[in-house]
Amino acid sequence: MDDDTSPSGSPYPGEASAEAEGRALPPASTSLESPQTTEHEEERAQYPSEDCEDSWPWIHRGWAPVRHKVREAMIQEKCPPNRVLKFQQCHDTVWLWQNGQTGEIKERGNHCNDRFCQVCGRDRSRRIARALSERIAKTAPLFITLTVRGSVGAKLKDQLQVLQAGWRALRRMPIWKAVKGGAAMIEVKWSTTGGGHWHPHIHIVAEGRYMEQSDLSRAWAVCTGGSTSVNIKRAFVTDKVINYVAKYASKPMDGSFTDKVHKIREAIAALGGVRLCACFGTWFGTPLNDGDSNDDDLLIEGWICVGSESNIRIAAASGCAASIKFLEHLDRQRAAERLRPDG
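-> structure tokens emitted (343 positions)
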């Protein structure tokens, strides 16, 4: 049998030639030594690792691909690690309540309240719509949309500044004296026309007299330096108005730009510190309930806290018949909610 070792006794021939040439060998590494990391890797190391998607709360699984991209965009944009952690832990503990009379189940979990969380954004929009419902019910409000002209390569932050400055200027124009008060909501979209560009606009529900769209368009062009795209119409159905508000209130993330991480990054940076929904005029001061969701509807007779979903599933796995029956009912209710138009 041939001897595979080098003349120096090393099984690696390369080491022998290195010694013969008088070159220093690299020091041997041990498992206790810290491997070298790049600055980029060290920055990412401070962020929490992402949980397996299968372990996510049910309420977040419907937007899983986008949620992955939002998390990555947050990290690339160097958002505080605590923000990312809170975003990841949203609804990781879900408490289930059941109505003893109807059998309906409601879920209550911890919220991240991040404006780029679809679940929290949806809840926040509905709360704002409820908060404004009393104002809306007292009038036949105007629906107004104001848009700034987009262009290829224009930064979203710059366009938002034009939009906000134009909105402030419009309220000082004589034409706006027809409006008593209302609520304004910023929405951001990505337009694929003309090579692709950002398309931010303001949706407004206002109380006041109708104004001609052509007059409003001319005033808006003066306020924005040339943008003429506006829309105005009167609404007479309260439910339609409330649904309109619920659709747009506090909605920073439209599906038109969630296909790319770099677009989400730009939106995160540009919308930092920007208030997405605010009341003005006679509606100013209306509390929009932007905090945690209101659980007062559960603190009434008939609702019982059954327990956390995780504990109920553990009990069901152990053969508890009551837990198994409860989860079957919960799954049927969730399946029905998925089929709803707004589900």
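The two ends are 73 Å apart (CA to CA).
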